[in-house]
Design a protein that fits this description.
The chain has a single domain, classed as Shew3726-like (Double Stranded RNA Binding Domain, 2-Layer Sandwich), CATH 3.30.160. It contains three helices and four strands, in the order E-E-E-H-H-H-E. A four-stranded mixed sheet has the order 1-2-3-4.
Length: 85
Amino acid sequence: MYPEFSVSSARVPILGDYVAFKIHNGDITTRAKISRNALGVLGRGSFEPDTWVFEQHKEEIRAAAYQKYVDHPGSHLISLRSEDL
C-alpha cells in the first residue's frame, strides 16, 4: 500500500446506514462509505459511536478501501461492507 493513500476522518450523515469518508491517493480524492454493519463487526458489539469505531480501526478500513480502490479503478464511490473487512 502506498504511503500517499489515506482515508479522512469519518462523518455520519443525518440519514442512512453508512458512515462517509474520503480516500486520498496523491492528488486524487474519491468519496467512500462504510456500512454501519461493517463498523459493528469491527467494534465487536461496542456501544461506542460509529465515528469512534472508525477511528479505532482506521488502518483496517484503509487496507480494505485500498483493495477496493485497486480492484475498481476509476470508481467514483468506494463502498465497504462487512465482507470487505
